Amino acid sequence: MAREKAKDPSELTVEEKLKNLYSLQTMLSKIDRIKTLRGELPLEVQDLEDEIAGLTTRIEKINNEVVELKREISERNNNIEVNKVNIARFKSQIEQVRNNREYDNLNKQIEYAELDNQLNEKKIAEAKTLVEEKTRSVTDYNMQVNDRRTDLDIKKSELEEIISETRAEEEKLREESKNLELTIEPRLLSAFKRIRKNSHNGLGIVYVQRDACGGCFNKIPPQRQLDIRMRKKIIVCEYCSRIMIDPELAGVRLDSPVAEKPKRRRSTRAKKAETEE
Ligand SMILES: [Zn+2]
Fold first, then answer.
1. Domains in the chain, ordered, with CATH?
2. How far apart are CA 26 and CA 203, in angstroms?
3. CA 124 – ligand 1 centroid, Å
4. How far is the CA of 277 from the centre of ligand 1 (A)?
5. Scanning 18, 104, 122, 174, which has its CA 20 to 30 A from the CA of 141?
6. Distance 247 CA to ligand 1 centre (A)
7. How far does the centroid of ligand 1 lie from the alpha carbon of residue 240, in Å?
C-alpha cells in the first residue's frame, strides 16, 4: 500500500521531512480541535447527572422523614382516642366512688390523660407544620430535577451530534496521520511528539512569523532565519525547542509585514537568561 510506495524516511531531504512533519502537525491540530470541541460536554453531562443524583437522594430522604412524621401523627391521634375513652370511663366511675381516696385517684388519672392529650395535640401541630414545610421543599427539589433533566437532555443530544458529526472526520484524520507518521524518521517523530506533548497548544512544529517563533513568539536572529529558509537542516527554536519551518514550505501565506516595530520588546538580558536555561 502507501507504505510500499513511500521512500525510506531517512532518505528524504530535510525539506521533505519538514513538509511531512508540518502536514502531520496540521492533522493532529485538527484532531486536537475536535477533542476540545466535545471535551467540555462530557464533563458538563457528568456534572448534571451528579447533581440530579444528589437532588434525588435529598428528595428520598425528605420523603422518608415525611412518612415518619405522618406515622407519628397517626400514633398520637390513636393515643388521643385511647385517652378520651379512658377519660369517659373515669368520669362515669367517679359518679360511683365510695371514698375520697378513690375520688382523688380518678381525678388525677383524668388530669394526666388530659395533659397527655394536650401534649399530643401540640406535637401533632408541630409535625403537621414540618410535613407542610418538607412537602414544599420536595416540590422545589422536584422542579430543580426537572430543570436539570431538561439541560441534561440538551447537552446529551449536543454531544451525540458532535460525536456523530466528527466521528468520520476524526477517523479519517487518525488514519491519515498514522500513514504520514510512517514517512517520518522515528527519531524525528519521537522528538516532535515530545515537544508537542510539552506544549500547551500542541504545536511541535511552527513557522517563522514576523521574525519570531510562531510557538513562543521570541525573536529569531537573522542568521537563524536564513538557515530556516535554506531548508538544509532541522532548526529548533532556541527558547521553546519547537521545530521551525519556513512559512513558504509550510504553505502559509503571511499577512503583509507590519511597518511598525512590535510593541513588546525583550531586553537582551532576558533573552540571554532564557538562552542559558
Ligand atoms: Zn519558540
1. 14-20+30-181 (1.10.287.1490), 185-276 (1.10.287.1490)
2. 9
3. 76
4. 13
5. 122
6. 15
7. 4
CA of 162 to the centre of ligand 1 (A): 33
Span 224-267, pLDDT tens digits: 999 999 999 999 999 999 999 999 999 887 665 444 444 444 44
Q: Which residues contact 266 (CB under 8 A, 6 or more apart)?
A: 218, 219
For ligand 1, the distance from its centroid to the CA atom of residue 190, given in whole angstroms, is 18
pTM over 0.85: no
What dihedral do alpha carbons 163, 168, 172, 177 form, nearest 10°? 0
The alpha carbon of 207 and the centre of ligand 1 are apart by a number of angstroms equal to: 10
Q: How far is the CA of 22 from the centre of ligand 1 (A)?
A: 16
Cell (9 digits) for 247: 512559512
CA 271 – ligand 1 centroid, Å: 12
pLDDT, tens digit, 9 for 90 and up, residues 4-55: 455 688 788 999 999 999 999 999 999 998 888 777 788 899 999 999 999 9
Q: Could you write out the DSSP letters of every residue in 31-57?
A: HHHHHHHHHHHHHHHHHHHHHHHHHHH
Amino acid identity for residue 106 in this structure = L
The alpha carbon of 191 and the centre of ligand 1 are apart by a number of angstroms equal to 15
Distance from Cα 208 to the centre of ligand 1, integer Å: 9
Could you tell me the sign of the dihedral formed by the alpha carbons of 27, 31, 32, 37, in that order? positive
What is the distance between the alpha carbons of residues 22 and 17, in angstroms, rounded to a whole number? 9
The grid coordinates of residue 225 equal: 532565519
169 Cβ neighbours under 8 A, 6+ residues apart: 30, 34
Q: Give per-residue pLDDT as tens, 172-220.
A: 999 999 999 999 999 999 999 999 999 988 999 999 999 999 999 999 9
Please report how many Cα atoms fall inside a 13 Å half-sphere around the Cα of residue 211, on the Cβ side.
11
